[in-house]
Amino acid sequence: MFTRIPQPLSYAEALLGHYTQLARAADGASLLGDFVLAAAGLSDCELAQLYLLDAAHTSLGLDAECLDGCLQPREAASLPADYRDQQLLQYSLCQNRVVGLAELNPSLHEVSFLPSGSRPWRALLCLPLLDQQQAVLGLLLCASHQARDLAGFAEPLGQLGTFVLSQLNLLQRLRRPQGQDAAPQPVSSPCASGYGLIGNSSAMRQTYQLIGKVLHSPYTVMLNGETGTGKELVARAIHDCGPRRSAAFIVQNCSALPEHLLESELFGYRKGAFTGADRDRHGLFDAADGGTLFLDEIGDMPLSLQAKLLRVLQEGEVRPLGSTETHCIDVRIIAATHRDLSAMVAAGEFREDLYYRLAQFPIELPPLRQRGDDIQHLARHFADKACAFLRRDPCHWSDEALQRLAAYAFPGNVRELKGMVERAVLLCETGELLPSHFTLRDLPNATDRSLNLRERLEQVERSLLLDCLRKNNGNRTLAARELGLPRRTLLYRMGRLNIGPAEA
Fold this sequence. Notes:
Elements: H1 8-23, H2 28-43, E1 47-53, E2 60-67, E3 70-71, H3 87-95, E4 99-101, E5 123-130, E6 136-144, H4 154-175, H5 202-214, E7 221-224, H6 231-240, E8 249-253, H7 259-267, H8 284-287, E9 292-296, H9 303-315, E10 317-318, E11 327-328, E12 332-337, H10 341-346, H11 352-358, E13 361-364, H12 374-389, E14 396-397, H13 399-406, H14 413-427, E15 432-433, H15 453-471, H16 476-483, H17 487-496
Parallel strand pairs: 7-12, 7-13, 8-9, 9-12, 14-15
Antiparallel strand pairs: 1-2, 1-6, 2-3, 4-5, 5-6, 10-11
Helix pairs in contact: 1-2, 1-4, 2-4, 9-11, 12-14, 15-16, 16-17
């Protein structure tokens, strides 16, 4: 089978002519229509389809189609279908890979997205479309009734698609009313319910935007934030709303196991690898194959394991303990930490190459004290869940209780709020939650004019030490490391400031 190779001069002239025509498009519909016509002509295919992600990057819709040289009409009243369950489209979209099938076999490939007719489709090209920031925004699909290799058209069509996306963005910006750019657009800020999260503060809306950008991307995600900010919930949202949602979501806390157990847990082992290994056992990488592996507290992973994790990320290969062979896996890694990994890299406590590989797409989760009215929304949600669990009627909230929660700093973030509300529901006997049902720790008041300078400084130091200890769940070694202090110095200051284990 010979591949049709266009003449360089005529093909280049045709490509240049399409660039010129697309640059003159007056609106988005004309631009997208001219694009699929150009793609069909340049590839000499009977079908060209353009799929674009919506503003929230959660739904894939067919925006333009050219069949047998004619644009197909679009029903303005009907919503575009969601093609997120089509495996070929999702593979190309999420893995950012060109899919070229020179011999299309309907019994092996699910192609229900192609229009049906009397003649079967024999060749297929599916091409991710990237914007100028190299983010995947959609797909271009070309199909032919003749069995032939279409991969040679991927590069010029991909460059033409990037140009079209930039033109589409320019047209959309020109159509907006003057001054509208400064305000966030509702369509680009997916609501909390779309990802199973709660909150509509500006800090959380920025988080939703970042989640939407990375859903259909194979990039490794690094979740940063204080303890209790909901890093695992965000990781699960990325998995549940992305194309891997039908596969497993596996969670492993890297600080929960010693080094040798963590290695066997992640990579698995073969029979006889160590004492007690009486059978082969798959690791978590194998268990999460096709899905997502969430590595919590990645900063506590030993250096020796960091090197092996780096190889998994770079090569997609795993070698179990006691084995001389590697095998390939397809796992998306989401990592999380409350520690400053860049400072750990500078101190030689974390591999620099692994840090940059994990931090392909960092997401900083805001602490609860920066989320404004989200505190009250979360409090009501946790109270309703607690009442349902206890099989009690829903509790009512007094204005004073809500105001007191809104004014509290919540050093333990959402986790502290959840425990506090559940305890208050247990204490509530009248059906109304009152300020007396909540035990809020008094934060030191460094502005008390009755204190001298040394006493004020001690209050500030005590508050800082307590916050750091609580972030590290009372672990003094980790707290000392984060503060840049010897452990003995931290213990001395805790004694001098009267900080007991229970308070930390």
